[in-house]
Amino acid sequence: MIDKKDFELQQANSSPSGDGGVVILAIESSCDETSASVCIDGKILSNVIANQTIHEQYGGVVPELASRAHMQNIVPVVDAAIKKANEKIQQLTTHYPPLTIHDIDAIAFTQAPGLIGSLLVGAQFAKSLSLALDKPLIAVHHMQAHVLANLISDPKPTFPFLCLTVSGGHTQIVVAHSPLQLEIIGETIDDAAGEAFDKTAKMLNLPYPGGPLIDRNAQKGDPKKFKFAEPQIQGLNFSFSGLKTSVLYFLRDAKLKDENFIEKNIDDLCASVQYTIIKILMKKLKKATEQTGINQVCIAGGVSANSGLRNALKEFGEKYNWQTFIPPFEYCTDNAAMIAITGFYKYLAKDFADLSISATARAEW
Ligand code: KG4
Ligand code: ZN
Question: What is the Rg, in whole angstroms, of the alpha carbon atoms belonging to the chain?
């Protein structure tokens, strides 16, 4: 049996590259995940992600190692994305001839922001493919793509919607007026929420990336056992550096009294840190709904995989009458499907990049 969405896909295209179907190949390589995705008319057919476990032993991403791993991964990952897309197409209908690289209508890639060496691998690969296939190139901003991850699966928010984007490098509240009209109305003035998770996890002797481990331990702990500093920042901006310092000094004092304090209290410590981070995030998100009058509220970015944040969004939604949206897990952390969906909207707007474009580590919207 095929569901309605798949049925539409079957109806829309007599062949993958036929009149009805715009085929986008997307590449994401901004940090330590090499990912490729194929979508037809904004419907994701594959999303292949190669994680780089090498960084765990160093307690953080080592840029040089990340670039080398992208170099090794990029060809097999793109190949796998096309193969998986084909498998999906064959599940939907037997009428399609196999999708080949020549059926691609445009190549989208993450142009910024991120680690420059990592970005360059994806950018150079995308540019080479664009040149070789003579197909348009689409440059995508990684943070905009995180927001548009909310447009991949049903139910989707309607415009305008608010999005709290929380990742390892960014924390932003964005108003999405349309797929390509995104406005930042609040952001962190120091650390990102993901950094707050990862840096406190390191203080708790947890390996990198600490966010998912804090999440797991927090589920067994008491969120109100320990109290950490909350910032008093005006407007819709965030700050996490005070929390980090507060955890550091608290642990220093506690360890003087009991050197095994962390091990004995790990679940409660994780629960209390997570509770504080979520409280800081949700306070500003609520303020944003009040200021804008928008009640369609999404979350995005790696930290939106956090179970406490997901529950908090649902609770606030019920309490304050918001309609809430959370992307499926695989579209929360870094992935090429979000680059593909953004690439699709840019394709419709004919927003193509020149081959002279290069990756940049930092970029304004
Ligand atoms: O969006 P992302 O995959 O990469 C960046 O663009 O930064 O986000 C990575 C961040 C890391 O800081 C990681 O610890 C955090 O997302 N993260 C989580 C969870 N899963 C990933 N933080 C808290 N709870 C999680 N379950
Ligand atoms: Zn990201």
Answer: 21
